[in-house]
Structure formats: C-alpha cells, structure tokens
Amino acid sequence: MNGLWLVAQREIRTRIRTKGFIVSLAITAVLVGAFAFIPKLFGGNDTYDVGVVGTAPAAVEQVKFVTYADEAAARKAVIDGDVEAALIDDQTVLADGEINDRLGLILQSAHRDAQIKQAGLTITPLRVVSVGADAAYEGVRAGLAMLLMMMLFFLLIYSAMFVAMGVVEEKGSRIVEILLTSVRPWQLLGGKIVGLGVLGLINLGVVIAVGLGAAFASGLATDLPPGMAGIVISAVVWFILGYAFFSTLAAAFGSLVSRQEELNGVLTPMTMLMTLTYLVSYLAAAEPTGTPARILSLIPPFSSMVMPVRTAAAEVPLGEIVLAAALMIAAVVVVLLAGARVYERAVLRTGARVKLGEVIR
Fold first, then answer.
1. Theoretical Cys-Cys bridge with 77: which of 9, 82, 90, 167, CB 3.0 to 4.6 Å?
2. Cα separation of 276 and 268, whole Å?
3. Pfam families, per this entry (predicted)?
4. Which has the closest alpha carbon to 306: 316, 314, 296?
5. What pTM does this model have?
6. For the packed helices 19-42 and 185-218, what is the interaxial angle rounded to 10 degrees?
C-alpha cells in the first residue's frame, strides 16, 4: 500500500500546481458564484416604491410608500420613474402604462384588507397542514437536480479523461517501465486513480462551497429546500463511486494505446456510456418519481448520476438508496478487478494499438 500512496502523492503534487488546474478551478468558482446571483438580477424588484397622496395606508410588505403633496406631483414622479405607481386618496392608482402584475395584486390585497378592517370584520386565515412534499420547493429542487446533473457529468468525464491521458503519457514516454521497477502495476494504477480522484474532490468541494456561499450572499439560500446537507453528502458519495467506475475504465482503455492521438478512439465506448448516463439522469431530473427513473437509479453505472439527481429532485426511500449504493459498489469492485488485469497486461506493450480481446485472452 505504501507504493500506492506514493504514486497518489506524486499525482497530486504534479497536477495541483499546473496552470491548467488552477485556471480551470478559478473559472469554475467564478461561474458557480455568478450563477447564484442570476435569479436576483433577473427576478425583478424585491421592493416597490409607491407614491401616496392623502393618508398613507398601513405598512405593506415589499412596498415602500413615498408621500406627495398633490396628484400632480405624484403623476410627475410616476412618469419620471421615481416610483412604480402612485395611490391617490386610497381610490385610484396611477401607473406609467400597465402596472406590474405583482404590484397590482399587492395593492389590491392591501386595499381590500383595509376596507374589511374599517367594516369591523375579522377574517380568520385558513390553517394549512402539509401532508406530502412541500410544493413550494418543487421548482428549486428541479433546478438543483439539473445543476447537479451537469456538475457531476463534467467532473466525472473531466477526471476520467485526465486518468486516461496520464496512462497514455507514461506509456508513450516509457516512464511506466521505470515506475514498475519500484511499484507493482496495481499500485501504480490505484495511486493514479486515488491521486486524480482527490483533485476531482477538490473541484467538487470548491463548487459546493462557492455555490452555497454565493447562495447565502445573494439571499437565494432562503429558497433552498430542507435537507441540503443530505443532498450535498449524496453528491460527494456518488461522485466517488462514479469516478472509481469510469476512471478505471478510462485507465484500462488508455493502456491499450501509446499515443494521445489514439486516445479518443479507444475511449469511445466509455464516453458513449457516460453520455447515455447523462441523458438518463436528465430524464430522472424531469420525472424523479417515475418508474424509469426509479429503475435506472438502481442499475450501475446509471445510478452514479441518476440517484443523486433523484435525491436532489424529490424524496427517495432510504432502502432504494442503500440498494443502489450496494449494487454500485459491487460494480466498482468488478470493474477494478477487470481493469487492473487489462492495465497490467497492456501497459508495457508499446507501439501499435493493443486489441482488448487479445489482452483478455
């Protein structure tokens, strides 16, 4: 195991200081942080300025009242854009064109409540009791699921490609022959997967930390559904399982070639599988409680993206999560054993592309 950790440390030290890794991490952090402010920028006003002529009404949430001496002054303020609308003697509303639908509803509701209060009536509000999933969070959960789906896909394919490129680079330069004099093939493979996996986790951690920080800074955090800690933990666990599966495939396929130019061709089966997993997870984000999503979230490797997306989009029974995790772990073990066998037999065979069937036989 010492050899594995030595290789892992070498991968981390070598990659984490590269300009490409630092720049891509910074760009990712900026994009994620900016994404949290988009709803605030395009979501319209949080408060409205409304001019008042006469007695100002009682305080209304999201409305700031500005008093004017007469209707002419209020009309000028509306035309100049100083206020969104003006309330004249609690009877007429002046607006520059069509009044904002939301503001109109707020003013109508406030006017109605004032008249009811003047009549001496008391309105007892309905008592609302939730008996199922909170519909108020459905839209937010759907958005989280879509964001999580894209984040996992790009991190998984980005990390797996780095593993494959590293394998081909070492094989093509014949450095692997020197390394294998000090460590065993499975230690070299495992160390590369673990080391680059740590870098993938750093990427994921930065995305989560910046995303949550920006959400609190922009006020978007108040709209986040309960159980965010579970969603975050689920994303991390499933990323680790998905990365272990796909990075092992990438290393095994990468060991079949000696040149970077041949890498895309040999990785086609893996990239097609990852793309299919992405498309299936999109279905799960749209219909998280549907039968196809429930079935596919249990089947490896689709579960590596479908299950965390389902967890973000809706409540998922704990039994299904445990079963999906157990099946995915079993699939990872199988792929690790098979991938290590292919890597060991092919990584020292330089020159022309090695056929997978030949290696297996």
1. 82
2. 12
3. ABC2_membrane_3
4. 296
5. 0.74
6. 30
User: pLDDT by residue (tens digit) across 66-112?
Assistant: 888 888 888 888 888 888 888 888 788 888 877 877 788 888 877 77
> First and final CA of the chain: distance in angstroms?
28
Tokens representing 198 are: 């740590």
Can you state the angle between helices 138-173 and 228-254, rounded to 10 degrees? 30
Reference 206, options 342, 7, 33, 17; nearest CA is 33
Q: Of 162, 168, 153, nearest to 193 (Cα)?
A: 162
Contact (Cβ atoms closer than 8 angstroms) between residue 49 and residue 14: no
**For residue 256, pLDDT beyond 80:** yes
In Å, the largest CA–CA distance within the chain is 93
For residue 44, what pLDDT is reported?
A: 53
Helix axes 303-313, 268-286, angle to 10 degrees: 20
Which phi-psi region, left, alpha or beta, contains residue 90 (left: φ > 0; alpha: ψ -120 to 50)?
Answer: left
In the chain, the amino acid numbered 149 is M
Helix (H, G, I), strand (E, B) or coil at 299: coil
For residues 196 and 308, give the distance between their C-alpha atoms in angstroms, rounded to a whole number. 22
Token code pair at residue 228: 């965010």
Residue 241 has pLDDT above 60, yes or no: yes
Mapping DSSP to helix (H, G, I), strand (E, B) and coil, where does residue 94 land?
Answer: strand
Residue with tokens 């100049």: 80
Residue 308, helix vs strand vs coil: helix
- What phi and psi, each to the nearest 5 degrees, are found at residue 281? -65, -30
For residue 233 the two structure tokens come to 């933990």
Distance CA 192, CA 208 (A): 24
DSSP, collapsed to helix, strand or coil, labels residue 105 as: helix
Q: Is the pLDDT of residue 198 over 60?
A: yes
Closest CA to 172 of 257, 291, 78, 75: 257
Tokens of 361: 């036989």
Give the length of the chain. 361
Residue by residue, DSSP assigns 149-162 as: HHHHHHHHHHHHHH
